[in-house]
């Protein structure tokens, strides 16, 4: 197993993943779009590169980043909110172009369960996704770009909503009223399991696969977020009583039953 790993996007997940891999003896090359973050990456042992991707192309030493890495982990979420949404697919096309010219042989592409529509019910990782959101549609199209790369084995991870010690949706939802879809199930995953699954892919050579990754417990949003508000001493969020009963449940059976991955951290306190 090659221990030189490049991580595109050392944000909340990428930075924590890099620290864990370095602790286990991996050499990590990581990217940031901010000059200010470079010292922080260096402090934990990441070899930093300032690289940004836009619809117009790549800006920064992408060739240097990729020349010593056999594996690339791509952790760049779409930015589609606000008045100036980006063309995420175009950005990923530029990255694919750089990969075709590199020596990279393995890719992990961090996607999202938003590739499934809310009306799809129980979704396994081998059913046809039918995204309804802009981010879901662009992520699904981007997945296909990486899966089609010649001479590169790509594994896709479709993570549910990411939570951790310092990150939880209840902090944003607390005290809000008139929220919709309170009867929809939650599909969440803890940061520790995001890292654990990516590390399993690297160490156990799970290449050329697609994985759903959400903790196998799916209470309704109303019940779950009221419970979390109670646990954290926050004001309950209030949901409309007329919420629909539909919603998707992300089934991670392939990880659990085929790959025997054991989730480390519950989404419940």
TrEMBL record:
SUPFAM superfamilies per the UniProt record, alphabetical: NAD(P)-binding Rossmann-fold domains
UniProt signal peptide: none
InterPro entries: Epimerase_deHydtase (IPR001509), NAD(P)-bd_dom_sf (IPR036291), NAD(P)-dependent_oxidoreduct (IPR051783)
A Pfam family hit: Epimerase
Domain NAD-dependent epimerase/dehydratase: 11-166
Protein's UniProt name: NAD(P)H-binding protein
């Amino acid at each position: 197993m090659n221990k030189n790993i490049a991580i595109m996007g050392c944000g909340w997940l990428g930075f924590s993943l890099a620290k864990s891999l370095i602790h286990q003896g991996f050499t990590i090359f990581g990217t940031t779009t901010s000059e200010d973050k470079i010292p922080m990456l260096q402090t934990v042992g990441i070899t930093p590169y300032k690289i940004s991707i836009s619809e117009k192309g790549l800006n920064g030493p992408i060739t240097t980043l990729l020349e010593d890495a056999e594996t690339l982990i791509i952790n760049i979420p779409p930015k589609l909110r606000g008045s100036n949404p980006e063309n995420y697919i175009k950005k990923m096309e530029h990255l694919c172009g750089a990969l075709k010219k590199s020596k990279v042989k393995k890719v992990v592409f961090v996607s999202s369960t938003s590739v499934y529509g809310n009306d799809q019910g129980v979704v396994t990782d081998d059913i046809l996704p039918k995204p309804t959101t802009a981010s879901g549609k662009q992520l699904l199209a981007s997945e296909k770009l990486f899966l089609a790369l010649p001479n590169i084995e790509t594994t896709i991870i479709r993570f549910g909503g990411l939570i951790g010690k310092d990150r939880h949706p209840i902090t944003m939802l607390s005290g809000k009223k008139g929220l919709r879809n309170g009867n929809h199930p939650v599909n969440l995953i803890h940061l520790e399991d995001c890292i654990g699954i990516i590390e399993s892919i690297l160490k156990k050579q799970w290449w050329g696969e697609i994985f759903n990754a959400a903790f196998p417990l799916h209470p309704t949003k109303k019940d779950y977020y009221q419970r979390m508000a109670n646990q954290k001493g926050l004001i309950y969020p209030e949901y409309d009583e007329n919420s629909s009963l539909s919603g998707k449940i992300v089934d991670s059976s392939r990880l659990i039953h085929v790959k025997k991955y054991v989730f480390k951290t519950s989404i419940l306190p």
